Amino acid sequence: MKKADPGRIEKHLKELNAFNSTPECGTTRVVFTDVELKGREYVKGIMRGTGLAVKEDSIGNVFATLPGSDPSLAPVWTGSHIDTVLCGGMFDGMAGVFGGIEALRLIRESGIKHKRDISAVVYTSEEPTRFQVSCLGSRAMAGDLTLEDTKGISDKDGNTLYDVLCRLGYDMGRFGEIKRGPGSVYAAVELHVEQNRRLEDDGRKIGIVKAICAPTNFDVIVTGVQSHAGGTSMEARRDAYMAACELALILEKLARENTESEYTTATVGRVKVSPGSVNAIPGRCEFSVDIRDVDFESKRKLTERFLSECAAVELRRGVSVSHVMHNQDIPLRCSEEISGIIEKYVKTAGLPYEKMISGPYHDSMFVGRFAPVGMIFVPSRNGISHSPEEWTDFAEIAAGTDVLAETLAELANR
Ligand code: GLV
Ligand code: MN
Ligand code: MN
Hints:
The protein is an alpha+beta fold. It folds into 2 domains: 6-212 and 332-411, Zn peptidases (Aminopeptidase, 3-Layer(aba) Sandwich); 214-328, Alpha-Beta Plaits. 34% of the residues lie in helices and 21% in strands. The protein is built from 12 helices and 16 strands. It has helices at 6-16, 34-49, 94-109, 136-141, 147-152, 161-167, 198-202, 240-256, 296-317, 336-348, 364-367, 394-411; strands spanning 53-56, 62-66, 76-80, 118-122, 187-193, 206-212, 214-223, 227-228, 264-267, 271-274, 280-281, 284-293, 320-328, 332-333, 353-358, 373-378. Strands 1, 2, 3, 4, 5, 6, 14, 15 and 16 form a 9-stranded mixed sheet that branches. Strands 7, 9, 10, 12 and 13 form a 5-stranded antiparallel sheet that branches. Helix 3 packs across helix 12 and helix 8 (240-256) runs antiparallel to helix 9. The longest helix has 22 residues, at 296-317. The chain starts with 5 loop residues before the first helix and ends with a helix. The chain binds glyoxylic acid (GLV) and manganese (II) ion (MN) (2 copies). The site of one manganese (II) ion has 6 residues, from loops. Keywords: Hydrolase, Manganese, Metal-binding, Zinc. GO terms for molecular function: hydrolase activity, acting on carbon-nitrogen (but not peptide) bonds, in linear amidines; metal ion binding.
């Protein structure tokens, strides 16, 4: 097999990074905004330039396919996403998109025969940045986001996903075709940056993912009484923000002290305090909760414990606490067979590697509902991601791409 070209991967990543709505703070490319639509066109251009046939489904998942010799066989997929968090980096998702396209180029240019089609996929909106719900494209493939659901989720301006898709000309009459059943995809392998510092700390170049943690996401709404900061004594006030702070600290403690699972995290990432005046006690505070776990049952119990703490804080502080659940996703065990193939090629390449759990989620978590999946991680400098500081050396992405190409070629001949 020919070797991946780090220079080409660098060029593509940097060119895509020009489609960015916050050049002053890292990369922001939110699904179906002007920069993201231009980014999509850029990626489709690269796919076509690589000799791949490009297709898109009704939620904007893009497929670029290298045909195999037997079209009756289920295809092999690779791929990731091009949307980002606010002020994120240029590698999360994009490394796997261009690594995937490069892998298909290597297979084709090396003249490797394969029976199954191999597709490089760009999944729509892995990040929940715009619609609060993550993995829109792969979630719909797994049947966990229906046409009806698209009418019930909206962005901060009140645009529903359904309306946005219609406005962009996607054919909602074909929404049913997005869903994939078991057996429709033979195997899927995603290349991604690690977003943690284990590989770097351990001096390894490749991570083989054993399992992907899944999030539970909900918003908590605390309603207290808005009143004068000076005129309301400490005893009399019903401060929505302080109640939210107490809940955030309880959440942190629950996650830190959870002994029921190998990996648990909990994050309050967005807080909105109203009215937001220096001299008024907040009457309302809304905050987001993100609980991750590699074990669904442990996550379910932790969520339950937190919600019962909400009821306790309600009583203690005389506020009311409600929540709006967005998703309670299921963690995924990667396919041991695919991981074994990845490991074989990592060993052949002489790359130091380790097996690991992914704290971040990925589209593979949903693809894994209908196909066996594997994931290849490459190091994140200082373990940083979802930040302008996110970095992975292009040579490291190329090394992961070489392993990906070998793995895809083998799977496509099974
Ligand atoms: C995806 O980016 C995640 O939040 O894990
Ligand atoms: Mn991400
Ligand atoms: Mn990602």
